[in-house]
Specification:
40% of the residues lie in helices and 23% in strands. With 267 residues, it is α/β, with parallel strands linked by helices. Helix 2 packs across helix 3. The termini are far apart. GO terms for molecular function: ATP binding; ATP hydrolysis activity.
Length: 267
């Protein structure tokens, strides 16, 4: 099925190449985890797909059409939640709905917002403001808002990176459940630094190498869903795939250090 396609995509900042000739084909309905060391271009890749930046070379297409600027078709969730502090949670979500579908009556948008908040366990927070909620609750609100947009393509940029381990695990489970139950099924690009998180959530793991960012591995994650966390962590195939990914990341970091020592990475 036609989905997201990147062909020879390159990006540079101030003469420094961040992404170099990225080629990817992601069918609709996949949840793809993106791993890589700091500076490998993970967030830049998401910003290109979101239409927040323009590549210096190559092309990006969604469902066969060229990507041009931001669109409600591509929802994005950042690590810092990005909720509007002057709006309560219901209005944060209903605003996304009316932006995506301007003809939606206000009462209907508010009703839909309450349904999305209830789906992520925030039914009791509809009148509360973001600053009145914990970080985990705010991030659940951001996820509810992203799904409320109805975007067929979701871009998640380290959405759980600032959370404690308990809330992080809860939100991983929540995301997996909401994604699995969504109809139509959404395509998700999920940026993370956490190997276990990437494997637990993803149908596929893409590893970006650094200096410059390029695809150094593209691995299928074929574990059946729904996934049970402890059983998966104890699975020999999971452990082997984790070792393979860690080895690839470590080798990339070593190559980066060698480039710096040789003067190649100094500009």
């Amino acid at each position: 099925m036609s989905g997201l396609s990147l062909e020879s995509v390159s990006l540079a900042y101030g003469g420094q190449t961040v992404l170099e000739r990225i080629d990817l084909d992601i069918p609709e309905g996949q949840l793809v985890s993106i791993l890589g060391a700091s500076g490998s271009g993970k967030s830049s890749l998401l910003r290109l797909v979101a239409g927040l930046q323009v590549p210096d070379g190559g092309s990006l297409r969604w469902r066969g059409a060229a990507l041009e600027g931001p669109s409600p078709e591509r929802g994005i969730v950042f690590q810092d939640y990005a909720l509007f502090p002057w709006l309560n949670m219901r209005d944060n979500v209903s605003l996304a709905i009316t932006q995506a579908r301007p003809s939606t009556p206000r009462r209907e948008a508010r009703r839909e917002a309450e349904e999305h908040l209830a789906r992520v366990g925030l039914a009791a927070t509809v009148e509360r403001y973001p600053f009145e909620l914990s970080g985990g609750m705010q991030q659940r609100g951001a996820i509810a808002r992203a799904f409320a947009l109805g975007s067929p393509l979701l871009l998640l940029d380290e959405p759980f990176g600032a959370l404690d381990p308990v809330n992080r695990a809860r939100l991983q489970d929540l995301l997996a459940e909401v994604w699995r139950q969504a109809r139509p099924v959404k395509t998700v690009l999920f940026v993370t630094h956490d190997v276990d998180e990437a494997l637990y959530l993803g149908d596929r793991v893409i590893i970006l190498g650094s200096s410059p960012g390029r695809v150094i591995a593209d691995l299928d994650v074929s574990f059946a869903r729904p996934r049970e966390r402890q059983a998966l962590l104890n699975d020999e195939a999971f452990q082997a795939l984790r070792r393979r990914i860690n080895d690839a990341l470590a080798a990339d970091i070593l190559r980066g250090l060698q480039r710096v020592e040789s003067g190649e990475g100094v500009r």
